[in-house]
Amino acid sequence: MTAFQNTRRILAGAAALLLSGTASHAVAQEARNVILFIGDAGGLPTLNAGGILANDKPQSLFIHSMPYVGLSDTSSLNQWVTDSGAGMTAIMTGRKTNNAMVSAVPTGQAGAVAPVKTFLEYAEQRGLSTGVMTNMKIWDATPAATFAHVGARKDKDEIFRQMLKPRFGDGVDILIGKGRADAAASFAKQQTTPEQAFAAAGYRYGEDTAIVRDAARVAVLRDADFAPIPAVEATIAQLARNPKGYFLMVEWDMHTDDPKKGLGHVREMDEMIRRVSQIAGKDTLILFTADHSFGLRMSGGTRGEPLAAQYDAEVAKPGVTDATNDVISVHGGHTGEEVIAAASGPGADKVHGFFPNTRLFDVMLSAMGWKPEK
């Protein structure tokens, strides 16, 4: 063998090893779990003000440190400014729909709709464990879009019915949210109680998030706030027992109709994401985004002084309203600008640039190595 042939043989071997290593790396990078965080109404203005209000410095949230970032269009099929139903439907199904619809699309026939398969249903069909956690009502548009299909987001009776009659698998394994009184009223129309209905579907039912640690199928419905980090830790510990993996959606309300409350929720969700990033494992895609933005603006404030104190001082002035506050003000409701999407873990590199919110469904599918159904 000549020196040239030997060199070619060495180079070919090195190339083969490199390709082999690349293939192995690609397999290793496939996600086992997906955790989707939704900051409801958590647009860029809200994240910016929430971070500075909490930490008195810019870009101080854990979200700001996530390695992959893009900007997501949130427009719905029929409006430039989306509601949560259409916004979350796009993320969960890869399809744009009309405002007020939940994981369903119009058929064009006298207001009829057709269901569209959600990412959670893909997970259920494949035997993964699933969870939905929210500090809003469990039947509200964002959580409902993970498992239900309705033409009107306010149809809570039908959403509760579908919650316990899933199209795929055995349905959401862990449900945590508000709406306990709503559930009682809805199931009463069926001559039953939530306790009876959830028990018949195999759930342990209660209002204390601590019960999540003791059962694989749990429905926690309450009418009061709860501590987010213990709840999400217990949920992940329970879901992670499934060797096939899990999907978890966590929604946290960031609407700033009440600016101080909404911006406080930014800090709460950010702390949750930080903690989950520590415990979820390297085989987990963690994705944060908002379903839509909101009309909040940070229009004042002096550096070197706590922003919260400056905001409170403005609130205390006679005649000052949320709309006229010179530090942080609110003008209207939902708005149509792009929102941030931030990601870490396997498949996170596909989150970059400008894109429609429907692409986030493809990001999650691709991370798991699944193909979309036609």
TrEMBL record:
Pfam families membership: Alk_phosphatase
* UniProt entry tagged with the keyword Cytoplasm: no
- The active site lies at S84 (phosphoserine intermediate)
Q: Where does Zn(2+) bind?
A: D40, H255, D291, H292, H334
Amino-acid positions noted as binding Mg(2+) in the UniProt annotation, renumbered to this chain: D40, D140, T142, E251
Q: Which cofactor does it need?
A: Zn(2+); Mg(2+)
InterPro entries reported for this sequence: Alkaline_phosphatase (IPR001952), Alkaline_phosphatase_core_sf (IPR017850)
Q: GO molecular function of the protein, one example?
A: metal ion binding
Residue span of the signal peptide, if any?
1-28
Q: Record's PANTHER family? A: ALKALINE PHOSPHATASE
The protein in question is named Alkaline phosphatase family protein
* Naturally occurring in which organism (per UniProt): Novosphingobium resinovorum
